[in-house]
Amino acid sequence: MPETPNKVGHFEVDLPPEKQVLALFAAKWTLGALRALVEAKVPDVLARGPRTAAEIGAETGTRADTLYRLLRAVAAAGILTEGADGRFALTTASTGLVSGAPDGIRDMFLFASDPMLWRPYENVAHSLRTGRPSFEEAFGMSFYEYTKANPAGGAVLDRAMQQNQYPATDVIFERFDFGRFGRIADVGGGRGQFLAEILRRHPHCTGVLADQPQTVADAKATFEDEDVAGRVTIVPTDFFVEVPGGCDAYFIKHTLHNWDDDKAELILRRIREAIGDDRDARLLIVDQLLRGPGEWDIGKLIDVEALAVLGGRERGLDEWNRIAGAAGFAIANEPVPGNIALLEYRPV
Ligand SMILES: C[S@@+](CC[C@H](N)C(=O)[O-])C[C@H]1O[C@@H](n2cnc3c(N)ncnc32)[C@H](O)[C@@H]1O
């Protein structure tokens, strides 16, 4: 039998199988080094062409020796290349880390690797013991309270969310015909980007954007940019208290997974109240839908972040059906698992 290198994820390791779990630490070492390089805008320099550590050091004002070690580590992990001539270059895995790259992920990366999202991992055992986010133990407040109280942290979050639209939008439109409906509410719809896209694609539809007052305060501009402002009503609300009525479809995207079952069920109850006796109305949830036991699904790992940071959770179909059922809904489609699954429910 030919010898094959031992590998855990991206990382080749010289360890017997029963010790290979130690290779997981390579992810920490890589991430720490890469964050330092991204903060120093090294990818921006490499976007202008391959460079030696000395050249990058001169352009970024960093120490060439230390820089070389970090570059070498990140290249070993396959995120840059290191040439025989000592020059480092971007790979497809790192081009998105260049400032202002089209479809870039620099702000997303800086958010996800920010100390506010590292520190909860020092004590996930707190979540294990209490079921509460370890974030609260680390910072003495919830994630949302923290990002409100710390404008710099809030700005890191806001910038990351701007990069969160990704191609998800197209997949949803491929899978679902919003043209079936006349009036569509986007509950927790942020500043209205997705609702504006629905209305742009379906000129006969009208829409209602329901989100927190501070979030919708300048949402009108989103609709004006898409030339659909005349077909939208913006409703500042607390969705735990009231969701506006009179719509044929109630859409809620990537919001329920931020909340535990009790809170998520409460939001769904408010939507059910808004629907009232209209049996033709639909609840449309776009969110993570986990695959079954034993199947690979990155959502099962993202769920750890939901637990440790937010106190929310990712859900499989049974869990979605349970909270939706408790709020007065029955599943009406066969959703495809993944992080942009669309679950259609009818009121019962
Ligand atoms: C993760 S964001 C998702 C935004 C958008 N649906 C998307 O997919 O990009 C969650 C949204 O829930 C809103 N939200 C949080 N608490 C709320 C509340 N009590 N009432 C109404 N909206 C709320 C936030 O303002 C935010 O826009």
TrEMBL record:
PROSITE patterns: SAM_OMT_II. The keyword Metal-binding does not apply. Keywords: Methyltransferase, S-adenosyl-L-methionine, Transferase. It holds the Pfam family Dimerisation. GO terms for biological process: methylation. The keyword S-adenosyl-L-methionine applies. It comes from the Bacteria. One of its GO terms (molecular function) is methyltransferase activity. InterPro entries: COMT-like (IPR016461), COMT_C (IPR001077), COMT_dimerisation (IPR012967), SAM-dependent_MTases_sf (IPR029063), WH-like_DNA-bd_sf (IPR036388), WH_DNA-bd_sf (IPR036390). Residues 33-98 form the O-methyltransferase dimerisation domain. Residues 121-330 form the O-methyltransferase C-terminal domain. This is Methyltransferase. It comes from Actinoallomurus liliacearum.
